[in-house]
Model the fold of this input.
Amino acid sequence: MFPYTYIYEQLKIWSFPESTPPTIIIVSPENKTYSASTVPLTFNVDEPTVWIGYSLDGQMNETITGNITLPALPDDTYNIDVYANDTYGNMGKSSTVYFTVDTTEPNITNVFQDPPSNVLPDDMVRINVTVRDAGGINRVLLNYTYANSTGSWKSIANMTRLTGDIWNATIPALQYGTNVTYTIFAEDNVGNAITTEQLGYKYEYQVVPEFSTFPILMAFIVTTLLLAIISRKKRTFSA
Done:
């Protein structure tokens, strides 16, 4: 003979079938931006199911049997829902998750050097650059190498935002004859990064000596004397 409690529980199941839908919690994707085009879809369901599916951007449900990796997605913003049907026929739905895919590196343009040429030993060289990214910029760096007769050195300067998309950093004054090469590194808020060297650009200049006024003065004096001599000779011949 079955215990009374067992019979009572069976009667409850037969007479009052379960009507609570499954609870579905999406673990991934999260409400954030991803730097890869392939995003994992992982979730938890609190009871056995006979069917599971997901809908991306409100499209028709795709049937799945468990956690998957979503097909490669182009850069854009998306929303996703997961559905599950339990053994009693109750359909559950997760909370909607919104996420973004951003696999594009920042755009670096308009590298400007001041002074643009004839850099003197007392000159600090200011570098301006335009850096844009739809998802925002995390950091911009100025990487430069300088070399002269005493050695070679590498340095990195954090560029600061001047206004809008324009970033700036300064290379300090260096001694005469120093050769300087530099590149720009930019990284967006999800880790996509690029350098001007990867884009095929590398910038350089050489520190030149200050041109003394003495040679100019001497050249002027010599020229004046020659003109005076020529003029005197012409007057002599004319006489």
